[in-house]
Amino acid sequence: MPNIKLQSLDGEVFEVDVEIVKQSITIKTMLEDLGVDDDEDEPIPLPNVNAAILKKVIQWCTYHKVKICLSSTTI
């Protein structure tokens, strides 16, 4: 799956699977509004989110992506 780079307020760059990060409705909507491609090479700046918070958001998205995948395979 393609990855996307997200840059926090303090300049830290996180490379994340696009499908994982789209678990956040806010980030998903922002990417759609900006017309960002799944294979974007430049980091997408998130000027209102520091690295610690962005890391937690990514952890939350990863957890829920895995949880959704697991629940769909058990049906």
Automatic annotation (TrEMBL):
SMART domains tied to this protein: Skp1
Gene3D superfamilies in the cross-refs: Potassium Channel Kv1.1, Chain A
An annotated GO BP: ubiquitin-dependent protein catabolic process
UniProt keywords, alphabetically: Ubl conjugation pathway
InterPro entries xref list: SKP1 (IPR016897), SKP1-like (IPR001232), SKP1/BTB/POZ_sf (IPR011333), Skp1_comp_POZ (IPR016073)
Chain ranges of the SKP1 component POZ domain: 3-66
SUPFAM superfamilies named in the record: POZ domain
Domain of life: Eukaryota
Family, per entry: Belongs to the SKP1 family.
The name this protein goes by in its record: SKP1
Organism encoding this protein: Bugula neritina (Brown bryozoan)
Species classification: Eukaryota, Metazoa, Spiralia, Lophotrochozoa, Bryozoa
